[in-house]
Inverse folding.
């Protein structure tokens, strides 16, 4: 069936009329927003006919259908799809391998650089003085110790 063999005006007008009735029902049941949205959808078939956009839509849909049927029924096309899939897999594998190579290169560079020992002591002070003071260990028998810690962090005592 070709585009010219279809009576488009009655078809589009009928779709629009059914859509407007459904939009009225949506308006009564679900409210104004749903009714307006349904009306907007209902007006599209008649608008497509009046603007001569139906021929373009027909060509797009028939091209997609022709592509899909050619894809499904052609072994040559399936060979092309398989090659495209293999190409994607090879790209992904090479990216993973490259990431591992870069990661190993960073590790070897970091191992070559000998870390210089930081001088933690200042003249006249022992090394222990520069470390932060350790918190005294509290007994965990107190059920409110966690709450007290949170209150102390917030400045509430």
């Amino acid at each position: 069936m070709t585009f010219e063999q279809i009576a488009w005006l009655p078809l589009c007008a009928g779709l629009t009329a059914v859509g407007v009735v459904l939009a009225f029902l949506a308006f009564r049941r679900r409210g104004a927003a749903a009714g307006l949205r349904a009306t907007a959808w209902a007006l599209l078939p008649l608008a497509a006919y009046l603007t001569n956009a139906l021929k373009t839509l027909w060509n797009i849909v028939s091209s997609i259908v022709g592509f899909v049927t050619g894809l499904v029924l052609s072994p040559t096309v399936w060979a092309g799809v398989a090659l495209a899939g293999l190409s994607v897999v090879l790209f992904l594998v090479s990216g993973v391998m490259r990431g591992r190579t870069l990661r190993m290169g960073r590790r070897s560079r970091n191992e070559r650089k000998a870390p210089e020992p930081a001088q933690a002591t200042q003249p006249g002070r022992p090394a222990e003085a520069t470390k932060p003071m350790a918190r005294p260990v509290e007994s965990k028998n107190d059920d409110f110790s966690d709450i007290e810690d949170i209150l102390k962090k917030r400045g509430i005592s």
